[in-house]
Amino acid sequence: MAAPRPPPARLSGVMVPAPIQDLEALRALTALFKEQRNRETAPRTIFQRVLDILKKSSRAVELACREPAQVDHLAASLQLITECFRCLRNACIECSVNQNSIRNLDTIGVAVDLILLFRELRVEQESLLTAFRCGLQFLGNIASRNEASQRVVWMHAFPELFLSCLNHPDKKIVAYSSMILFTSLSSERMKELEENLNIAIDVVEAHRKQPESEWPFLIITDHFLKSPELVKAMYAKMSNQERVALLDLTIAKIAGEEPLTKDDVPVFLSHAELVASAFVDQCRAVLHLTAEQPTGDEEALATIRLLDVLCEMTANTDLLGYLQVFPGLLERVIDLLRLIHAAGSDTTSIFSPCASIKAEGDITNVAEGFKSHLIRLIGNLCYKNKENQDKVSELDGIPLILDSCGIDDGGSGWLSGWLVPETEAASSESGSWGRAPQPVQGSELRFSRCPSARPSCAGRARGRRSPLALCSLHGAKVTRPDCMCPSGSV
User: Fold this and answer.
1) Is 140:183 a contact under the CB 8 Å cutoff?
2) Cα dihedral sign for 405, 409, 410, 411?
3) pLDDT tens digits for 32-51?
4) Where does the Ataxin-10 domain lie (predicted)?
5) Between residues 139 and 366, the one the model is more confident about
6) Are 268 and 322 in contact (CB under 8 A)?
7) 174-221 pLDDT, tens digit each
8) In sequence order, which residues have a C-beta less than 8 Å from that of residue 332 and are 6 or more positions away?
9) How far apart are CA 23 and CA 401, in angstroms?
10) Chain segment 414-453, per-residue pLDDT in tens
């Protein structure tokens, strides 16, 4: 007489086979664990059985890694592995009891080892990719809101799993591995990341290639940008394309809807030092764009993005003061504007007068945008800072700015936005330079005539129906100047 069959196990009122041996049983469990009440009442013995199937099936993958010809015989094993991961993934959803039970069986170590074997196979079978993705989803779920599981995942996965997955050609694998990294990171583990910069750079590269993916974005904004040491080390090792991606996210953080917190300010002051230093050292790279056959375009684009970041940083009152006194920054900005303006005399140059800054319309030309942001940065650095205002005059910066700008017929367009006219009642200490567009009021404006030695400036200003004043620290008052360059700067 045959031995009696073991009675089926009961899971929240649903009958499931006691010996989980086949694909159908695993699929039944996966479906059951979609319900919270089933997850909360699952016996630990079920997870041991699932782990046994996972270990047994993984041997076929190990064999295929040693003997590539065996890859063609992996289909059945990959199906079982996929369903094991799905079952474990579902069991961990918002259930710390199951997370702890599965972790204590050393399932995390088995899963990580198996995922690393998947990477070694390097085959494009869809069944392999599905198993790969489900394994990463399981690791993400078991680590979610569970510090003990996060420690174990980090111990097994760092750094090999992240190095293997963050640059994978499959977008979902990159996204899921980014989810695991985001979930597992902490301030203590960030220090380990500083010693493995390739992982951090891979995250930035993942964001550059997949800007729509949420996890790389969150890793950078919520973790990386809170570590000045990491950002500085990354920036030195990055390609120019990766630098642009990182700087874009820095802008997003500064200009986002949520203002910088009290804790953020010291961190971003460190970022400001890095950005300002890099700009002062490398800003002339943008002049590569003036060559007949431009070279170094990527370096020039990184320089342009550094300027964009500086504009946003100087629009933040917590960061402005530090940058206003940063050694050599204002001088370098004025010097660069002068070089670009001179390069514009060549009609074939990207900085030619046909791209001069206008008061109306959107900035669509890269060079035009760069010139406008140089002037914007000069205005910000001079905001309520008489020393910088005087420095601009001493460096002949005001006629240079005027000569770089087209003035609209309305008389109070783009230029008045960044270089606010000084009223007779306002003192230079109160700030004659503005950081944001302000309307010109009805008070009397101060102008001074420009010598006839500057015809290009006079030619642009003459004939306008409504004069636009550039703030002058010195000079006589006139009602209708032929030119609007202050005498104090020539």
Assistant:
1) yes
2) positive
3) 999 999 999 999 999 999 99
4) 370-409
5) 139
6) no
7) 999 999 999 999 989 999 999 999 999 999 999 999 999 999 999 999
8) 279, 280, 283
9) 73
10) 444 445 433 233 334 433 343 343 322 232 222 222 222 2
Among 62, 60, 85, CA closest to 74: 60
Tell me the HSE value of 239 on the side-chain side, using a 13 A CA sphere: 11
Is this prediction's pTM over 0.85? Answer: no
Q: Say which residue the tokens 């993400």 belong to.
A: 140
Tell me: cis bond preceding 439? Omega within 30 of 0 counts. Answer: no
pLDDT at 125: 79
Choice between 267 and 19, residue whose per-residue pLDDT is larger: 267
Sign of CA dihedral 470, 471, 474, 476: positive
Q: Could you tell me how far CA 308 lies from the centroid of its own chain?
A: 13
Give the number of other Cβ atoms within 10 Å of residue 258's Cβ: 7
**Do residues 354 and 475 make contact, with C-beta atoms less than 8 angstroms apart?**
no
Largest interatomic CA distance in the chain: 118
Q: CB–CB of 303/351 below 8 Å?
A: no
